[in-house]
Amino acid sequence: MLPQEIRIILEEMRSERIRGASWLAMKGAEAYIALADLLEGEELENALREMKTEIPAVNRTMASLYNLSRFIPVTGNPEVVRAKAEEFIRLAEEARREIGNIGGELIDENEVVITHSFSSAVLEIFKAAGRKGKHFKVVLTESAPDYEGLALARELEKLGIPFEIITDAQLGLFAEKATLALVGADNVTRDGAVVNKAGTYLLALACHDNGVPFYAAAESFKLHPVMTSRDVELVERPYARQGHRIRNYLFDVTPWRYVRGVITEFGVLVPPKEI
Amino acid sequence: MLPQEIRIILEEMRSERIRGASWLAMKGAEAYIALADLLEGEELENALREMKTEIPAVNRTMASLYNLSRFIPVTGNPEVVRAKAEEFIRLAEEARREIGNIGGELIDENEVVITHSFSSAVLEIFKAAGRKGKHFKVVLTESAPDYEGLALARELEKLGIPFEIITDAQLGLFAEKATLALVGADNVTRDGAVVNKAGTYLLALACHDNGVPFYAAAESFKLHPVMTSRDVELVERPYARQGHRIRNYLFDVTPWRYVRGVITEFGVLVPPKEI
Fold it and tell me: Pfam families of this UniProt entry (chains A, B) (predicted)?
């Protein structure tokens, strides 16, 4: 049985509705650090064994959680656990910065970039392109039913980057007018499919139909070493509107043939993962 | 200047947010009948000339309004106006029934039919298939931001037809699991494109990608004799959410290459309008 403090963090991770794979991975790494503060020896080893199942089970779609649980060794030494968890956090931060640098180069002057939902990697690319002095416009979806697009809008507002917000159903209409599509990913499967907020697949299809290049941005810890697109278990969180139950799968799967490239901290994988 | 009574009806038509092309056409025909009750002779002729611009201008996307305004002759005789308006209504009702009969044949036992937004022609098909004793399931979108999908859900509930409601962003996910797609149309352009609620194009793309046949149902008065897909003026009704302005084009345009057929009262047009 994991200590109460850790179970609280896991519960917080499970109930998070807006933030994605990167946030979850950071929170998971913090859970390991908290564990290293609480336990040592055999107790720590047992807890780490439990974490190997508990952390990926928070959300099976998230490759970041799977990779985090593999990154931390099972040991009785709390110093090792703390050091590895801190290394994971540091590598993740470096990865995001580097994705910004690499992805920022993809944005040309006067680009119209369409995106869906909120990805911290995509935001990092927008920041880097802004720092490079590029002028571009972002078209973003409100991203129903949790409206995380509006959180992205607030960030862009702070950065002074012009944007327009659309309903999810207009992804096709506005893909036609865009020059580049950039989305995040919660998981890039072994066969190169991009698992991301439901609606991403529709954007990819519309981009394909209109010749707009479609890229996903993902730290390498989001590349899943085992899972294929057929194995993806999609998490669902139904909700009610006007007394009706609304189906609500959080993610969909975009096959690699619609993805121009996956922007990672090591470079752009084209086609995904076949470097 | 049109009489106050008529201007009120036109205003009601302009401000209607949920109901589509069929409802607007019926309401427009009622406006003509009201006009015939109020005016005659030269006054009626002048008003009818004004209606030729006013009725299509209510919503330029709607072929039904364009065709209605051409259906009613400019005359001083109120009896002629009333008779033609009533004929339009009768033909429209017959057309919808016949579309139900023809379209109902397309639904096989255990079909999973995906649709988007609320179309009275599609509802008629569901009713007819139900009367024929067929068992099938409907997957429908809530259709943000006005949620007209929930109005369809209430109709299906009354009819005892099983259904599931999804968010618009899940159209891709659920198209994969569907066996047939049926949508309405506010306009079928001269080059066969289907103008319908924004998001329809995304559904068509997802159906194409998954080999699911995609049909539109439209009374013949929704076939536009002049407008091509390039001429479509898309009506926009932006709204605010959390202090942000949200772009909101009501319609998008699905090119004929993604449309298996258009179900009209005369039969199924395959490819659209090339009979």
Answer: IF-2B
The whole-angstrom separation of Cα A43 and Cα B200 is 56
In A100-162, the DSSP E strands lie at 111-115, 136-141
Q: Are B249 and A170 in contact (CB < 8 Å)?
A: yes
Dihedral pair phi/psi, residue B195, rounded to 5°: -95, 120
The whole-angstrom separation of Cα B250 and Cα B196 is 8
Domains of chain B from N-terminus onward: 4-96 (1.20.120.420), 100-269 (3.40.50.10470)
Cβ-contact B167, A168 below 8 angstroms:
yes
A to B CB pairs, distance under 8 Å: 122
Beta carbons of A251 and A196 less than 8 angstroms apart: yes
Angle at the Cα of B172 from the Cα atoms of B169 and B174, rounded to 5 degrees: 100
Is B123:B113 a contact under the CB 8 Å cutoff? no
Phi, psi of A255 (to 5 degrees): -65, 150
Q: pLDDT at position B273, please?
A: 52
- Those residues of chain A that have pLDDT short of 50 are 274-275
Go through chain A and tell me how many residues it has.
275
CA A72 to mean position of chain CA atoms: 20
Chain A interface, Cβ < 8 Å to B: 116, 141-145, 147, 150, 153, 164-174, 197-199, 201-202, 205-206, 209, 234, 241-242, 244-249, 252
Q: Specify the pLDDT at position B135.
A: 97
